[in-house]
Amino acid sequence: MHPHDYGHTLTVWRHVLATSESYEIEYRLKDSNAGSYRWFLARGMPVRDETGQILKWFGTCTDIDYQKRIEEALRQSQERASTLMNSSIIGIHILEGEQMVDANDTFLRMTGYTREDLREGRMNVRHMTPPDYLARTQQAHQELARHRSIIPYEKEYVCKDGSRLPVVVGAVALQHHPFQAIGFVLDNSARKELERSKDDFINMASHELRNPLAALKMQTQLVRKRLERQSHHEAVTALSRAEGPIKQLERLIGELLDVSKIQAGRLEYRQETVDLDALLHEVADTMQQLSTTHTIVVRGAAPRLLVGDKDRLGQVFTNLISNAIKYSPGAETVEMDLDASPETVTISVHDHGLGIPREQRDKIFERFYRATGPKQRAIPGLGMGLYIVAEIVKRHGGTITVDSEVGKGSTFTVTLPKKRDA
Ligand code: ADP
What we know:
It catalyses: ATP + protein L-histidine = ADP + protein N-phospho-L-histidine. Residues 23-76 form the PAC domain. It comes from Ktedonobacter robiniae. InterPro entries: HATPase_C_sf, HATPase_dom, His_kinase_dom, HisK_dim/P_dom, HisK_dim/P_sf, PAC, PAS, PAS-assoc_C. Keywords: Kinase, Phosphoprotein, Transferase, Two-component regulatory system. A hairpin with a 5-residue loop joins strand 7 (149-158) and strand 8. This protein has a five-stranded antiparallel β-sheet with strand order 6-5-9-8-7. By secondary structure, the protein is α+β, with helices and mostly antiparallel strands. The chain has twelve helices and 16 strands. The chain folds into four domains: 3-72, Beta-Lactamase; 86-187, Beta-Lactamase (2-Layer Sandwich), CATH 3.30.450.20; 192-264, Signal transduction histidine kinase, dimerisation/phosphotransfer (DHp) domain (Helix Hairpins, Orthogonal Bundle); 272-417, 2-Layer Sandwich (Heat Shock Protein 90), CATH 3.30.565. The protein starts with a strand and ends in a 5-residue tail after the last strand. The radius of gyration is 36 Å and the shape is elongated. The model has no long low-confidence stretch (mean pLDDT 90). Bound molecules: adenosine-5'-diphosphate. Adenosine-5'-diphosphate is lined by residues 323-324, 327, 351, 353-354, 356, 364, 369-371, 376, 381-387, 410.
């Protein structure tokens, strides 16, 4: 072993020997075999006679390399943690249950609270969550208790001045402190603002498109009637070819309007008694007339009266059957199974088509989401149908689920409560 900072160590030693004091020196020596340095601690004290003269030195040397390494790792990890905590990129808070017990300056700045508010216990998740986000927040905290982490989700905080801040929040539980978690908060206002302007645009565009289309439709019908009266059969046939695309445009614009109404919470529902069996057969018949490729098979029965919006419920099953046909280009049938229990009615729409990969099954109910496979992409659509379907089903107190096997087909199952008073 060759002394590394030997010169310095010797100087210190000479000094302690000269001043006759006890010493304690940490130093490093190079291990020539391993080529690395190890830390040692040398301690020494003089042994004196009764006159105070030093007779000899008593010394020890300890290998403290392991301890030094731990100290260094701890220092580095503390530095990392404090760099993260002090960064202005992300808001961070430490949670104990619903109480925030610590937070970085960025989070305080985002929410307008002060360090004193934090110390006085005035920062509480429940207190800082608007009522419309409470259920989702509670669900996230249950997720934290069960899985030790929260997958980032969108919510809002109520700031100290009462304004609302859109954020994306995620959290992980601390390993050695079962009740504490560290939460990460990103300001989401820029994205939300962008979404709002997109929604405004869609709302405006769908209104602007609807009026000229209605005029075009009316004019086509008038001309058609006039031509029929004058027995211009060829011209009637030519004109009726425009009716399909007009209907398609009408449906798309209607869906755009529905999406923007749902976003604004303004989609209205009638409350009427609906004969579900009759409605489902009606929808199946209409879709059968439109399809030249598939046979629609209705099995079972749902002899139940529901309270709901007949047109909107019709829209749900029209959409599901239309998707079933659209996404099973090579198949010949689409089946609709009806079943009823004393409390619920279940309607399944089953196709033998492309199927939907597992990781995309939840996402297909999101606004404007379209599956990413090349075969799906080749089929036109805007990703609005299932979003509207899910919303209508939800507003009728029901649920919609999807079961699917890629390359084999998909089954969409809607369950509705038998009678609802609301
Ligand atoms: P669109 O059909 O206009 O794209 P939807 O909201 O109706 O919009 O559907 C969203 C996505 O879900 C579709 O893009 C498609 O990829 C997938 N999907 C819906 N229904 C089916 C189905 N029956 N089979 C396979 N994929 C489907």
